[in-house]
Amino acid sequence: MAGDTGDKTRARQPRRDRRARAKHSGAELEARFARWRDHRHARRATRTPEVRSRTRRRAAAVVTGAAIVALVATSAATRDNVEAQRSANDAAIAARQARLAAAEAAPETAGLQARLRKLSRAAATDAAKVRDAQQAYAPLYYDASRQPTAENGTPNTAMLLTAEHRKALAPLFDPKSSVVDDRDAYSWHNVLPFDEDTRIDPRFAWYVRYDGEDASPPGGYAWSVETVTPDLRGTTADTATAVWLCRDTGTGEVLAWASAGYTYDGTRGLFSKLGVVVTAAGAAHEHPVPPGTGGPR
Question: Parallel, antiparallel, or unpaired: how do β-strands 221-230 and 214-215 relate?
Fold first, then answer.
């Protein structure tokens, strides 16, 4: 596969437009991520199926208890037919107590708990596959930046392997998430074949750390799955959100983070609506763009 002409001696992570990123400072991006993560954690802690089920059971208990008190009060107020009223009250109380016990024992929605568990397992498994596939770019770019290239600009072996590796991410994302066609996606380019400030193709590397002109050693940064959160707003249990972090393994600083929605049909799940943010710490280790050239990096 032939590559675009450009830098013939270095493998460069395709260029990002720094002007668009200047709209937000690094501190603002990191603060936004911190608020978003805290919000997701809070929702996860307070909206679990067990908590929601307990809340509904408590509500059922309050309603049932109020009905029982009302029956007893009515009985006390009607003294002309005490025995008959007592018998009726006892039957009504027993019936309400039985319904309360059933409400406490019954699942919130039939099968919802099982579907949520299945969704969570599938989303977590696929999120780990995405993490591993993104992490695999680190050694590929490291090798690509060090292997020699031909004078005619033909990509070196590691460059070709990098382009081929994009196929590993394709089955994990909704095809509608792709920004470029397969020919461009699986060929090496020194410049991204799409405008990532508008949209990113999830098959490409989301972030590559550089030390100067060369990609950093692969052990210097790592992707991880931060959270996988099922959507508990409905009863279908078929959507979730995943968040990944890329950290500097030496300092622990977050270099980049990404989030995507996940839709599960009971058998297979796909990610979509990918968003990627590079922090100030991450931007400091992106490939430098020669001033005034607008060339690849």
Answer: unpaired
Please state, in angstroms and rounded to a whole number, the distance separating the CA atoms of residues 224 and 210.
19
Q: Cα separations (Å) of 228 from 66, 121, 125, 136, 248?
A: 40, 9, 10, 21, 22
pLDDT tens for 116-170 read 999 999 999 999 999 999 999 999 999 999 998 887 778 999 999 999 999 999 9
Question: What residue type is 219 in one-letter code?
Answer: G
Residue at 269: amino acid letter: G
Q: Output the six-digit token pair for 211.
A: 């030390």
Could you give the CA distance from residue 133 to residue 117 in angstroms, rounded to a whole number?
24
> Nearest to residue 203, comparing CAs of 133, 262, 264?
133
Residue type, 204: F
- The burial of 11, by beta-carbon neighbours within 10 Å (0-12 exposed, 13-18 middle, 19 or more buried), is given as buried
d(CA 256, CA 279): 6
Nearest to 15 by CA among 251, 278, 226, 255: 278
Within 10 Å of residue 178's Cβ, how many Cβ atoms? Answer: 18
Provide the token pair at 200. 């990113």
Distance of CA 248 to the CA centre of its chain: 20
**N-to-C CA span, the chain:** 21
How crowded is the C-beta side of 233, counted as CA atoms within 13 Å?
5
CA–CA distance, 156 with 293 (Å, rounded to integer): 24
CA 190 to chain centre: 28
Cα 212 → chain centroid: 30
pTM: 0.64
d(CA 14, CA 27): 24
Cα atoms in the Cβ-side hemisphere of radius 13 Å centred on 193: 19
- Say what angle helices 49-77 and 82-105 make with each other, to 10 degrees: 180
